[in-house]
Amino acid sequence: ILQMVKFTLFSISAGVIQIGSFAVLEIFIQDYWIPYLISLVLSILWNFTLNRKFTFHSAANVPIAMLKVALFYCVFAPVSTWWTHALADNLNAYVIEIGTMAINLVTEYLYCRFFVYRNSMNTNQK
């Protein structure tokens, strides 16, 4: 439970980065998907760094762990870009963004817990 709480709190901080960068980028770039993808990448990097160290306490090879997370986003990013773009004409951009972030939170936690860090959790207790 503590692991889920930490992951959620770090994901909320990543969400703040995502929403903040999305808001700034949306001022300058009118196509929804470009600010979405840039803000998503920024939040991924932040979330990966904090969760690897503080939530999963993993000493796993960073490039391999990042590659595994990148594989998740090779599926999530195109699919979520498609649905956010499809919904953008009918719903408020922030409603779409927050809903997508909630789906990302749950699916990424499960993916990290049971695939990325499954065999390396608690190997770095520093």
Summed up:
With 126 residues, this protein is mostly helical.
Shape: elongated
Range of helix content = over 70%
**Per DSSP, what share of the residues sits in E-state strands of 2 or more residues?**
under 5%
What's the pLDDT, averaged over the residues? 91
Could you say which structural class the secondary elements and strand pairing correspond to?
Answer: mainly alpha
Radius of gyration in whole Å, from Cα? 15 Å
Low-pLDDT stretches = none
- SS field, number of helical segments: 4
Count of beta strands? 0
The termini sit apart by: 21 Å
List the helices and strands in order: HHHH
| Main sheet properties | none
Oligomer: single chain
Please tell me about this protein's structure.
The protein is mostly helical and 126 residues long. It is 79% helix and 0% strand. It is built from four helices and no strands. Helix 1 (2-28) packs across helix 4 and helix 2 (33-55) packs antiparallel against helix 3. The longest helix is centred in the first third of the chain and has 27 residues, at 2-28.
Draw up the topology in text:
Layout: H1 2-28, H2 33-55, H3 62-87, H4 93-116
Summary tags:
single chain, about 130 residues, mainly alpha, 4 helices, elongated
